[in-house]
Amino acid sequence: MNCFEIEVASDVDESLYDDIDFWVHFAKQNGVEELYIYFRYLDDKLKIEFTGEADDDSSSSSVVSREELDVASLPKYLYSSCPSLKVLRLKGCQLQIHGNLHCNQLKSLTIHGFHFDNDTISLVLSCSPQLEVFIFTLEVMNEDLSIESSSLKRLSIDRYLEFIDGQPSGETELKISTPNLQTLEIYGVPHGYYLLMNVSCLTSATLGFYGPERYEDGFFNYDYPVEDALNEILPTMEHVEDLTLSDWCTQMLLGMKKKCWLSPLLSVKFLKLMINASFDEHRQIVGLLEIFPNLKTLVVQHQNVVIANYPYQIRRARESLGFETKLPISFPLQLRTIEVTWAEGGNSIFPLIEIVLKHASKLEKMVFRVKGTIPSNSLFLASQKLQRMTRSSPTAQLIFCGFRVDW
């Protein structure tokens, strides 16, 4: 048996645990390699608490506290030897481990839960000597978090942040010591200290820091320390070749460059910028290119989320820092490929394209990825605008893709 999924959609009680144990045992007896356990009921309850809203198909409508939730512990049969299990995915559970796990063959572990602490994570890692992929989402519990593993090759962390009266509930330290780690992804609101040790094999990184979207009294008054987090993390990424940055990280990196920050990112060849829908000044991105002198591919991808206080934050930053929108004549732009997303009305992307086409003498192709359904006349006008732009690379191809034309 390659894959087995268990989805719990009703309230959790003792009899239900017996059923889950039975099916886990059944999967193990049949040599399951990939096991997925989804406590949908608890997941929906926790979504209500964090967002104030439930999924459309959720039968729950009242906000509950974490103390009121039943704890969905791991099925007991997972504690015994499971030699065939290579991939384990858990979602919506409050992870509580009593005893030792025996997952000697486990290669990939994904946990989307809220109630597990540093001791639990350490136990999981110590009992999984061949674990290569560890992806988890957790709520910050006001304690330090340490990830130490010699087998991990990919680590993805998404930490929720609790606010009390508009301020973070506490600062914590995230320590990562993974000598064979190749891919690192960190998401969430930065709220403490970051210590990356022994990550010399790291070649791909995603820094998805962001700010909270709303607060009951209007805007959050928390001063997001994105720049502090970047100053702690980026110096350890001198070997990274593939880098993805969130919208907030892009803005802070532009500000750091303006302050004469010395970039350690000289090895980056692929840069992906996840730009928010509220971002209306794409020419600022030009100021980033000097930070990456060996950049070969630039991808500018729009996100659909509009953060409520985003325009104010970005407008204030732009006024105070005066982001650059030009490249020095002497700067050797090495870009071979640029890919941008565009939707009708998003004309602020064209000044960026014009600057890049003018300076990228080695450009081989420009991919213009269109979002959604576009009227044929709008697509024609966009095409004409691009073709009229000056190109320093006469052989560069212009490629349109991903669009649906409304005739």
Explain this structure.
- It is a single chain.
- The protein has 407 residues and is an alpha/beta fold.
- It is built from 8 helices and 21 strands.
- The protein has helices at residues 14-29, 40-51, 118-126, 226-233, 247-258, 310-321, 349-359, 376-387; strands at 3-8, 34-39, 87-93, 108-113, 133-139, 145-148, 154-160, 163-164, 167-168, 173-177, 183-188, 193-197, 204-209, 242-245, 270-275, 297-302, 337-342, 365-370, 373-375, 397-401, 404-406.
- The strands form 4 sheets. The protein has a 14-stranded parallel β-sheet. Strands 6-10-12 form a 3-stranded parallel β-sheet.
- Strand 1 (3-8), helix 1 and strand 2 form a beta-alpha-beta unit.
- This is F-box/LRR-repeat protein 15/At3g58940/PEG3-like LRR domain-containing protein.
- Residues 71-158 form the F-box/LRR-repeat protein 15/At3g58940/PEG3-like LRR domain.
- It comes from Perilla frutescens var. hirtella.
- It holds the Pfam family LRR_At5g56370.
